[in-house]
């Protein structure tokens, strides 16, 4: 394999530049910061695919998505005739990850056929991740003022998110964005804006059903647990349990033996949770990776270095009594518990979907460290610090 012609990369490169420039300026109000971020974000894409790309950092799944989308494109399938060709689409995609095959198809329609096309789409998604992530950070974790701007940049260039979104054609960046949007909808719901919350959550849940079906199920379960911790009457608890049972029964009827399916699937790859947690947290070992995973060496090293900050950060989040922080703590514990017992989810690729949660904890720890080290710095404001 060889790099792509710059003519092919020009359109996605320009879109990445413009999107980064606009959103960064919207968040930071700094022309210099926005231009710099846009040049770096688009420059990484152009240099990698225009100079260094040789197929080393690709995997079988990537090419499956790519080739399936090419088959659909050759059949003339698009957004306007999708309903007429659902049988072919499901046959090509196999059902479970069909959304990402369509995602690749959509990328080809915009940027032409090439491995770079869906990767460019993923890079554009990271801008949305940083945008919505900064909103959540300011609203729920006290990252306001200058801290909001810094947190936005931290997400925009987070090493793990940057590596996965800029190098390989994987669905994990899309799943990460969907996680962030679900957290945003939870935040909206807790603030009494149920219409906005459900308007965001419902399409996200529908997409995840054909991408990572267990994610909305876990979110729903965690919301149930979070609610049970806060109910203040037996009557409220009774109706909530009854409603949840009816909803689950309806889902079981629609999917068909949902309980048996989930249990049998999980039991296939159960592992020791202590070993699983350590493996999930520390994979991969920096500078000890296989060749096609070596693009993760530097992000993995930074991930290891930030573990103490992330640990302190999650402790600080746990001290906050807001409804969202209580749910967020359950969210982190719930997904890490799943990773710890289910071997298939312990690779570095699956951990990408909780990179926002890790970034929040890392940044929270870094923030407290900086406030402790430089208490008189202009970034520090007492209202910025989460209090219990």
Protein model, in words:
By secondary structure, the chain is an all-alpha fold. Helices cover 73% and strands 0% of the residues. The chain has 19 helices and no strands. The chain has helices at residues 6-28, 31-52, 60-74, 86-93, 98-111, 116-140, 146-156, 159-167, 172-190, 194-209, 214-228, 234-255, 258-267, 273-282, 297-305, 307-319, 323-341, 348-351, 355-373. The chain is globular, with a radius of gyration of 21 Å. The model is unreliable at 382-388 (pLDDT under 50).
Q: Summarize model confidence as the mean pLDDT.
A: 86
> H/E order of the elements?
HHHHHHHHHHHHHHHHHHH
Structural class estimated from helices and strands: mainly alpha
Over all CA atoms, what is the radius of gyration?
21 Å
Distance between the termini: 55 Å
Number of helices: 19
Instruction: Estimate percent helicity.
Output: over 70%
Key terms:
disordered C terminus; 388 residues; mainly alpha
Short description:
This protein is mainly alpha-helical. Helices cover 73% and strands 0% of the residues. The protein has 19 helices and no strands.
What's the topology here?
Elements: H1 6-28, H2 31-52, H3 60-74, H4 86-93, H5 98-111, H6 116-140, H7 146-156, H8 159-167, H9 172-190, H10 194-209, H11 214-228, H12 234-255, H13 258-267, H14 273-282, H15 297-305, H16 307-319, H17 323-341, H18 348-351, H19 355-373
């Amino acid at each position: 394999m060889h790099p792509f012609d710059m003519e092919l990369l020009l359109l996605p490169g320009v879109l990445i530049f413009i999107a980064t420039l606009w959103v960064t300026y919207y968040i930071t109000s700094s022309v210099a910061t926005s231009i710099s971020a846009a040049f770096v974000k688009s420059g990484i894409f152009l240099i990698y695919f225009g100079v260094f790309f040789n197929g080393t950092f690709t995997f079988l799944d990537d090419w499956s998505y790519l080739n399936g989308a090419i088959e659909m494109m050759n059949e003339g399938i698009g957004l306007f005739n999708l309903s007429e060709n659902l049988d072919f689409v499901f046959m090509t995609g196999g059902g479970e990850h069909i959304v990402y095959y369509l995602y690749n198809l959509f990328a080809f329609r915009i940027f032409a056929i090439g491995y770079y096309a869906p990767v460019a789409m993923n890079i554009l998604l990271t801008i949305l991740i940083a945008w919505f992530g900064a909103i959540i950070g300011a609203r729920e974790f006290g990252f306001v003022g200058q801290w909001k701007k810094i947190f936005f940049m931290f997400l925009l260039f987070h090493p793990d998110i940057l590596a996965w979104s800029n190098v390989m054609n994987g669905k994990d960046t899309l799943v990460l964005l969907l996680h962030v949007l679900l957290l945003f909808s939870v935040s909206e719901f807790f603030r009494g804006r149920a219409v906005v919350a459900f308007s965001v959550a419902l399409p996200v849940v529908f997409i995840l059903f054909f991408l990572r079906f267990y994610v909305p199920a876990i979110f729903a379960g965690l919301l149930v647990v979070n609610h049970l911790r806060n109910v203040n009457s037996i009557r409220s608890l009774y109706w909530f349990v009854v409603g949840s049972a009816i909803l689950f029964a309806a889902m079981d009827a629609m999917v068909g033996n949902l309980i048996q399916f989930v249990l049998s699937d999980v039991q296939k790859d159960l592992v020791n949770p202590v070993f699983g947690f350590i493996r999930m947290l520390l994979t991969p070992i920096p500078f000890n990776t296989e060749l096609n995973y070596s693009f993760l060496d530097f992000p993995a090293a930074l991930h290891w270095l930030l573990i103490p900050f992330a640990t302190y950060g999650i402790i600080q989040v746990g001290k906050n009594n807001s409804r969202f922080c209580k749910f967020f703590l359950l969210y982190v514990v719930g997904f890490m518990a799943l990773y710890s017992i289910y071997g298939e989810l312990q690779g570095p690729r699956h951990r990408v979907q909780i990179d926002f949660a890790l970034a929040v904890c890392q940044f929270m720890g870094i923030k407290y460290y900086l406030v402790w080290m430089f208490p008189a710095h202009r970034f520090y404001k007492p209202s910025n610090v989460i209090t219990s």
